Amino acid sequence: MLNSRTWPDETSILYAISNKLTQASTPAEWLEAVSDYARDNGATSGVLVYIEHDEDGRPAFTESAAVWVSEGAPHRTTGERLKLDEHDAYTRAWMAQPERPLLIPDALNCDLVTGNTRALFASLGIRGMALLPLNIKGRWVGGLIFNWSVPFYFNEDDLRIFTAIIQQAGPVIDSMRLYAISRERAARAEQLLAINTALSQATNEDGILAALALYSDQHHAHSLTLSYIDSGDSGLAISNTVMAVWQDGRIRPDDPRMNRTFRVQDYGVARLWSAQSNEIVFIEDLEADPRVDEETHRLSQQLGIRAIALIPLFSYRQWQCLITIEWNEPHVFSRDERTTYTALLQTLPSVVASRRAYLAAEQARDERELLYRASAGINAARSYQAIADALEQLNMNELTIVLWVWEGYDLAVASYMELVAKSQDSTWELGARLPVDSIPMVRDYECADLIVIEDTADRSSIDEVTAATTEGKGYHSLISVPLCLDGRFMGLLGFECNAPRAFTDREKRLAVGIGELVTAAVDRMRLKEETDRLNLKAQAMAALEERNRLARELHDSVSQALYGIALGTRTAQTLLERDPSLLREPLDYVMSLAEAGLSEMRALIFELRPELLENEGLTVALKSQAASIQARHNLDVELDLCAEPDIAMETKEALYRIAREALHNIVKHARASRVTLRLMCCEGDVSLEISDDGVGFDPADSFPGHLGLHSMRERAARVNGSFALSSAPGQGAHLTVSVPLGG
Prior knowledge:
By secondary structure, the protein is an alpha+beta fold. The strands form 4 sheets. Strands 7, 8, 9, 10, 11, 12 and 13 form a 7-stranded antiparallel β-sheet that branches. Strands 3-2-1-6-5-4 form a 6-stranded antiparallel β-sheet, sandwiched between helices. A 6-stranded antiparallel β-sheet has the order 16-15-14-19-18-17. Helix 6 packs antiparallel against helix 7, helix 12 (365-380) packs parallel to helix 16 and helix 17 (558-578) runs antiparallel to helix 18. It is flat.
């Protein structure tokens, strides 16, 4: 039977909604602004939900941001979450038409409402439903949901009005939500700053918990605990021991959980956090969550805990700590809580790791001092043998030190490790090699492993090849530390003993610590060796390039002057025999060439040490070069130079040398009377232009033996510049070089 209803004017309804939306500023006010029509037609509840996305950006679940419920209807709260994949048919239906409302007259007699969805609606007393999706240009924001406790049969007016509400409410809610999110982020950033500041000032476990309580207390957490995690040789978490407890606003040193140890294998929830490092486990209701095992149920009931957040901290390739935040009532974790606790994973692991490292150092002060002395010697070492000598000074309890370095990059194709350093009493010979492929102990290494062999006679703990290799040198026990950095295997540091030996935990810790120092030193030396090789190669290339450049410069300048001097001298010799009175002209010619050659040589020396360019800049150097050309060769040089450009010295030198080469070519070949030199600083690049009124030439012609044009093109290319040359016989020449600013 259709509902018998009357409605006010549709325009008035939408006008009223619009007015309320413009005045609303909170989710509750937005929901209230659009609820009158549904409420007046018998709706018993209304919900504004936001859609949250997964890591891939796909809608994952809805979270209620605002709720109203009529008297007598089942209670609803904000923060309720609904996983979309648990309600496939229902979800697909309303997401398929993001611009239209989904109207369900009777949820218990609808093909879209099945399984989990039907059970949920039944528990909430929902029969009729109007779901108004909020989707802005293909981006899901959320939805408005109005529910009836009895079947409700919608008509065309309902469809139109609910569609209009979508069109009005969607942009407003989206805009205001984005603004609210930005404010939330700003507030969260301030909160994180306060927590991290407190963490940076924490000096013990109590201080760390107190810093976290600055936030957790705002969300009514009942208690917090900090437990240190102990790991086995395999790196798996074995147990956690409570080191600090915060409850009811203060640290509780007398809490019965203090110093209590919990074994991971005894609690299913513990196995949850230990299975994935640095991922928080949120349990909103310990009584209802299927992941909670019986032992955890028993413990939580004993402690009066109903909700929990487990924050495991993992850093430096090992478990560090477990932070537990507890509520004595079921607790729905808001998006802000999840985001804030997750953000703390960026700082908490290092804070706790530093604290644990400090405690370990306090408990073994002598080890720290020993490692400090080792570090000083190793860091000062400039050779592999110097590393071994530094370690020998530490008096390693009759342990012989050997350092093997492998030069390969892939163990699968490795051949040998070479002994590069040793203690004085080692029976190994420097330069000795071990075949990596044939020694299982080395071949099957793991970078995190410490290889300990306490008795080579015990074949259950050692392979035959390793036993034979060590016993052949008189060693019957050893600790070997693989030298690994960023997954790269670089060799082994060995501490060997000539008798079976039960190595202490202290010796093992020292071996690991010293191994890390030696790893860094070996890596540094290998990098230095590689750098030295590259530098030698670069120097050789630079020297070759400089020789080629000098050859070009000498060929195009001084060598020609010397050739002219030789020619003039021969002419003078001939005239000396024929008519000495005619010697003045050839001698004047020789003198002018000598002076020109001297000027060219001085310019070449300037090229080798261009102090003017370095100290005064490109524009001053160009002015000086132009003045020199004008004075020596009586050329009229017109300058048009911009301010000193912001380019690299390499680029300035290239432009200067190109300008010098071009001016010298004009002097030698162009027979010009006027030259124009411009330096223009345009947006994005610097351009050098040189033109003359000389005889010109055909740029397509080849000029055997003349290296000037080739040199200029090379210099421009080296600084990522462009080179252009235009000329024709009788029309002078015009050269342009452009390089990018900042180059």
